[in-house]
Each structure stands twice: as structure tokens, then as C-alpha cells.
Specification:
Blueprint lengths: L2 H12 L4 E2 L5 E2 L2 E2 L5 E2 H23 L8 H20 L7 H17 L7 H10 L14 H34 L7 H38 L6 H34 L3
Helix pairs in contact: 2-4, 3-4, 4-8, 6-7, 6-8, 7-8
Length: about 270
């Protein structure tokens, strides 16, 4: 294989998900149908969620009064910061928003943080365990648009539920058809509302996916530089810590804003 072909194959291998589907959904041995499961995304996101939230639950069960120490101090700090953000942004009454914001920030952050692991370390470990050197396995779940869209669509449905819960069916429909131009322009109001609501989950998903995918691509390109990767990898990794934190924070804050908009009336 030529150097160019090897480079292309290396990049393609790192950007390919471990897909599982029925034989009817395969074209030339590749899963292309709708009912295709990205097993690596499901496994990594699920394991990270179980580990981090299991650890938080364990620390909560062992929490003591007085000055917190160690892990309890860190968890209380994260929860306190997020709770303050919710108080400043969400002015309705709901016991759901703060736990939802904590779940989103922590889970998205730990999934993003998988991007800080050297790009070849975990794939080589997987290949050593399975014995299959051609096995694709992506370890950054947020570089998979299926996951980011699943999260954003979940937020979208919770937002709709919040609308119906706070305003009732009649109040919600009245807002859809009357805001912002009044009932005389109800069709235009309805079209604007549909476009606005559809844009929310799409922008939420694509923003996270685009930033994380681009960051992963940069790491892969740096890994191809051989001996020259060391002076470039460390600065980019340090900068990427800011990116993964910021993307988790933005996803959380937009979720809080959408919940606040759903709980308020025009």
C-alpha cells in the first residue's frame, strides 16, 4: 500500500464506528440501514455513565457534615456551580432542571474527555484483546452524531413536556399561534415556531458533534507526523481541555435556557 493509501486507511480506521446490524441492512458487508447500532458508542457512553454516576452516588451515600474532603469536595463544588447556573437562568419551579443539567454536564464532559487519551492507545489495546487488528472502535462517543442527536432530541422532548406541564395544552397552543405577531397572523406564528423548535435540537447536536469531531481529526493528523507530533500534541491537548469543558458547559446551558423558555409565557 502506498504512503497515501496508508494514511487514508489510518484516518478512515480511526473515524469508523463498530457497527452492528442485520444482514439485510448491509451493502458490500457495510452496515448502511437505519437499524444500525454503533456498538462502540453505546458501550463507551454506557460504561462512562455507570462509572461516573455510580461514583457520585457512592460519594453522596458517604457524605458527611462539616468541611468536605477529597472526592466529596469536588462533587459538591461541581453540583454547587451547576445549581447556581440553574438558579440564575431558570426562573420557573421544577425539581427536574438541576438534576438534568448536572447529568448533561458531567456525562458530556467525561465522554469528551476520552479525546484526551492518545489516539492509538485504546485502539491498540482493543486490538490486542480481540486479536483483530482491523477492528474499528471509536472511543469518543461525542464524535458520533447519533449520540449527540439522541441527547438533543431527548432534551427537545423534555422541553415539550415542560411546555405542556407549565402552560397546559390550551396555553401552549395559544402561545404557538399567537406569539410573536398576535392571532391575526397565526399561520406565520406557527411556521416560525416550528422552524425555531426544529432548529434547537439540530443546532444543539451539530455544535457538540462538529467541535469534537474536528478536535479528534486534529489529534489523528498530529499522530501521523511521527517524531514531530510531540511538540504539537501537548499544546493542542492542553487547549483541548478547554474545548471539552466548554462544549459540555454550552450543551448544559442551552438545555437550561430551553427549559426556561418552556416554563415562561410570552
Amino acid at each position: 500500500m502506498s504512503a497515501e493509501g496508508g494514511t487514508a486507511g489510518y484516518i478512515k480506521h480511526h473515524l469508523t464506528n463498530l457497527a452492528v446490524c442485520s444482514d439485510s441492512a448491509k451493502v458490500d458487508g457495510v452496515c448502511t440501514g437505519f437499524w444500525t447500532f454503533h456498538l462502540d458508542t453505546l458501550l463507551v457512553s454506557g460504561i462512562l455513565g455507570l462509572v461516573v454516576f455510580g461514583l457520585m452516588a457512592m460519594l453522596a451515600s458517604r457524605a458527611t457534615a462539616g468541611v468536605p474532603k477529597g472526592g466529596q469536595n469536588f462533587v459538591e463544588m461541581v453540583v454547587g456551580v451547576i445549581d447556581q447556573q440553574v438558579r440564575d437562568t431558570f426562573h420557573g419551579k421544577s425539581a427536574l432542571v438541576t438534576p438534568l443539567a448536572i447529568t448533561i454536564f458531567v456525562w458530556v464532559f467525561v465522554m469528551n474527555a476520552m479525546d484526551l487519551v492518545p489516539v492509538d492507545f485504546l485502539p491498540f489495546a482493543t486490538q490486542a484483546v480481540t486479536g483483530n487488528e482491523h477492528l474499528p472502535f471509536k472511543f469518543v462517543p461525542t464524535t458520533d452524531p447519533n449520540l449527540t442527536f439522541a441527547m438533543s432530541i431527548s432534551v427537545f422532548f423534555i422541553m415539550l413536556w415542560m411546555n405542556f406541564k407549565v402552560k397546559g395544552v390550551g396555553g401552549f397552543l395559544h402561545e404557538v399561534f399567537s406569539a410573536p405577531f398576535g392571532m391575526k397572523l397565526a399561520p406565520i406564528n406557527f411556521i416560525f415556531r416550528v422552524v425555531e423548535d426544529i432548529a434547537k435540537p439540530i443546532s444543539l447536536a451539530l455544535r457538540l458533534f462538529g467541535n469534537m469531531y474536528a478536535g479528534e481529526m486534529v489529534f489523528i493528523l498530529i499522530a501521523l507526523l511521527g517524531l514531530y507530533q510531540l511538540p504539537l500534541a501537548l499544546p493542542w491537548e492542553l487547549f483541548h481541555i478547554l474545548i471539552i469543558t466548554l462544549q459540555a458547559f454550552v450543551f448544559m446551558m442551552l438545555t437550561i435556557v430551553y427549559m426556561s423558555m418552556a416554563a415562561e409565557s410570552h
